[in-house]
Amino acid sequence: MEIHFMMKWWGWGDPQKTFPMEDKPNLWSWVCNILALQDKNKISEPVSREQVILPEANINQEFLSEITSKLEANQIYTSDDERLEHAYGKSYADLFYARKGIIKKAPDIIIYPHTHDDVEFIMKSAQAHNVCVIPFGGGTNIVGGVDPRDQTMTAKGMRCIVSLDMKQMDKVISIDTQSQTAIIQAGALGPILESQLCEKGWSLGHYPDSFEFSTLGGWLATRSAGMQSDAYGKIEDMLVSLKMVTPTGTVITRTTPASSAGPDLNRFIVGSEGILGVITEATMRIHKSPEVKDYRGFLFPSFEKGVEAIKECIDKNWIPSMIRLQDEFESQLAFNMKSPKKGFEALIQKQVKKFLLATGYQKPCIMIVGFEGDLKNTQVISQEAVKILKKHRAFSLGKSVGKTWSKDKFNIPYLRDYMMDYAVMVDVAETAAVWSKLLNVYHKTIEEMKKRFAEEDNGTGTGYIGCHISHTYHTGACLYFTYATKQNPNKEMEQYYGYKKLITDTFLKNGATLTHHHAVGYEHSPWMETEVSATGLKALKAVKDVLDPKNICNPGKVLPVEEEMRLGVFGIDAPEAVHQSKSRAKKRSGQVSRNLNENTIS
Amino acid sequence: MEIHFMMKWWGWGDPQKTFPMEDKPNLWSWVCNILALQDKNKISEPVSREQVILPEANINQEFLSEITSKLEANQIYTSDDERLEHAYGKSYADLFYARKGIIKKAPDIIIYPHTHDDVEFIMKSAQAHNVCVIPFGGGTNIVGGVDPRDQTMTAKGMRCIVSLDMKQMDKVISIDTQSQTAIIQAGALGPILESQLCEKGWSLGHYPDSFEFSTLGGWLATRSAGMQSDAYGKIEDMLVSLKMVTPTGTVITRTTPASSAGPDLNRFIVGSEGILGVITEATMRIHKSPEVKDYRGFLFPSFEKGVEAIKECIDKNWIPSMIRLQDEFESQLAFNMKSPKKGFEALIQKQVKKFLLATGYQKPCIMIVGFEGDLKNTQVISQEAVKILKKHRAFSLGKSVGKTWSKDKFNIPYLRDYMMDYAVMVDVAETAAVWSKLLNVYHKTIEEMKKRFAEEDNGTGTGYIGCHISHTYHTGACLYFTYATKQNPNKEMEQYYGYKKLITDTFLKNGATLTHHHAVGYEHSPWMETEVSATGLKALKAVKDVLDPKNICNPGKVLPVEEEMRLGVFGIDAPEAVHQSKSRAKKRSGQVSRNLNENTIS
């Protein structure tokens, strides 16, 4: 059978597609300049499929024959291509190894359930045979959420690992037009569920960056946030009820707009990242397809001015569906992604630039603002919100900027692959903080990262970091950082985890959260105790232990793993650790490397 | 020391206050008529304080001396008055027994912590000495949330029970004006916390019916909803972070506007009703004190028309801060609570009535609509919302009706005491359902209850039931029923639990939730499995077992108690049970009675 990889096994997105650099003539030279890249040739392209070596499959035959007796042949795979497709998510670490053809651990069997009953059957069988189950939606997780990590040794050796690919459970089962809810199978990819809803005039309104390649179940399992979360909420706000199959039974929550019948079980499950079981379907709050989608661009003289404007919109209750405020650095990136204007347009642009420079916009920050919904409602809200933005010195760039942003919004992840070809380390980190702490978190993060860039061992002594605010709330907002520097040869993982540790420590030390919407996986798990307190962690673990007593559900995720803690893989016990001496930091990142290398195939 | 009871020990609210019947000359005769009350004398007044007999205190001396060694004398009480004040909540069953002077079980020690550290100390000591701890806020719970229920027998006999009265922890600790959050101690009563916030220009905006006598901690523990929840959300939506002291450690959640760091621990704690520990303080989302408070009354020709109007306001996103739609029966009650007009006003009223009758308002339903906030914002929203209401045949009653409602809004609970003096059983039940099920739940509930009234054994064959919608959501709304009938002499508890069973079964069978904001206590606990599924219940129990392994925290609440289930106290295993034969129902309610009577003091 011919395998069609839904995404590149070594990178982001559609295997047929690369980052559209051709219409951005200024971009690459700007990047090379910023990162001080000397060698402008592709020096680190991915190996060919043939060069990838997969670890030998570890099949539990009793389990496999039980599964085979009930499911159809086209639901069960043990081929290397399928195993490769499900071996990694899309974190920098995942792609770094995949591109080299190093598969540290791969699932042994890939199963595609068609129904809720299939999932119940598979889970029962997995529980009986002590087989691990990793729910797999689109596989876009960038914190190690879908990677096989089980290290449990049994009398029969290591446990067999199943990747449960949910993508064939992709139907909108029913729409309740009165209640504005839809029952949707968890494996539906963004475009697939939106098209089914759209046909009937409805929309879920959830558009995370990964929209094209991620699923409803994945969004729920990771507490995802879409671009228009200001209007529609985070995924947990849209959730009405769900079904989750655990090794010890199925949780079914009640379809009700609100309740006070004990703690909210939906919120036990949302964010559980497959460690409790598999979400098979959910009743979601939906909206009429918006009559109006009005996106506009503005320039602010500073990040601070933009934040003031957002805060006043929130205070006055004129809240756009989307606000995305880019800092000066990310705005520069955006400017360099535009095609240069020609002739008269270029002249105008030059004059505008001159005017802006003369009036205090030396470090201009772009804001993209979106209004969606009913015609009358968006008219009123946009009118009032824009008044407030202008009060805080927003310079209107018109609707074309909104359109440009919208066109490229799902392309940014492809840029990472492009840069990795040139041996660049590139990653993102996001957090959220209350307004009184937000700018401090922003400045401290930029400062700490620039300091680290200056100390870089990669021969450049420099790097890029930029940030945008997206997802705003009454009490605060999300900060989303993108950073890049040349890879440090032969120390790529020390480098990567070094930055991850630095930025995460900086978040937590300054009162921000561990993650706003990328979730925990294994990469963030060492910080969980700092985030939720030791007793809080005990409560999470209690639910895990009772629903999944054999730890067969996505082991090694969310909850810190003892061994990792002991080895100090990330070297974190408390936020204060960020101030550890440089030698100690070096020693710790050395440990990271050793530990990771032990798992690699030489 | 002179004891000042904050609330009547035998009824609702301020001991100095009774229901203001004097300005409602039509009300009582209307009630007597509706309920077919023959005997219009007070035949069932509460006994005097002297006639109340308290069970002997069961003091754990080791615990008491440990506590006494650290806390001040005015923090620890064992007096009968204090024990009486903390023996019951305010459910009909609670008041029925209290009024007769029957105290089935009372706490043995009452402790008033002053600080978070006090609570940690008390909890540690209670854990060491196996003493039960019941957090007590205002004690207004009407589903048995604060009643001592522990039946655990130890080698030293029954366990000593502490009521932990939080009311001295009543400070707004700090306000973060930028983030619009306040850190508030959990024991602050509604008026106390609002006055501290108001002084600085802020408001929490949470006004449940019990506002005057309930606390922040109680609201959080029961997932309370305030009258303006449409604008400000339920209490869980306002919560940013909190501290909860458990017998095995303190949970501290992170102050962040949003997160994806695992399941949301705040939501493990909100709704836990003291069974996991004691909430000591919380960071809450606050709002600027609203510039405008604009309340208005309307009449609709039917409940259905009112629902249509609400749905269109939500669909078009012009949502008032409060919508309260009363059905025809509750509207009649409201009409009969008004002072009759005189002279010219009476003439006008008569003409209006004539006009309404002629144009299809035979069964008029009152809607109270409120708009709160910024001047410009409320102007726009009210204008658009009122347009929609009028489209659905809303007849404007002007602002005076809003004012009348606002004046009496906290008085309604006093009416229950008034009616109980006349041997009337009166109770409330509330639920929520998605829009597509809402009207069916409404009609089925009215129908079932009227059928039961007709079969009443109290000699009247009749009763009252009315309903209002409050708390609306994108996907549905809350239904709040009030019902009354003459007490069935010597079978008051069979009667009460019979109605509770009937109405709760009707809710669950027709797809509504067990409770929207009254919580579970012990009265609703037998339905928890139906509400959250067996596996869901296992998850809740897991958290309880690990944080409170000795079950010292408010035992017997939220989670169904085995023995009660076995005895069939409420006779519920599944919603189908509502269709059980009448004889079986009788047998079961007989068991209720026997079981309850066993605990009474004869």
From TrEMBL, chains A, B:
Residues noted as binding substrate in the record, renumbered to the chain:
R416
Q: Where does FAD bind?
A: D209, S210, F211, E212, F213, S214, T215, E273, G274, I275, L276, G277, V278, I279
Tell me the ranges covered by the FAD-binding PCMH-type domain, including all copies: 103-289
Q: Which GO terms describe its molecular function?
A: alkylglycerone-phosphate synthase activity; FAD binding
Q: Which SUPFAM superfamilies match?
A: FAD-binding/transporter-associated domain-like, FAD-linked oxidases, C-terminal domain
One GO biological process from the UniProt record? lipid biosynthetic process
Q: What are the record keywords, sorted?
A: FAD, Flavoprotein
Catalytic residues at Y480 (proton donor/acceptor)
Skewed-composition ranges (Polar residues):
590-602
Question: What transmembrane ranges does the database entry give?
Answer: none
* Positions of region (Disordered): 580-602
Positions of the record's site feature: Important for enzyme activity = R324
Q: Which family does it belong to?
A: Belongs to the FAD-binding oxidoreductase/transferase type 4 family.
The name under which this protein is listed is FAD-binding protein
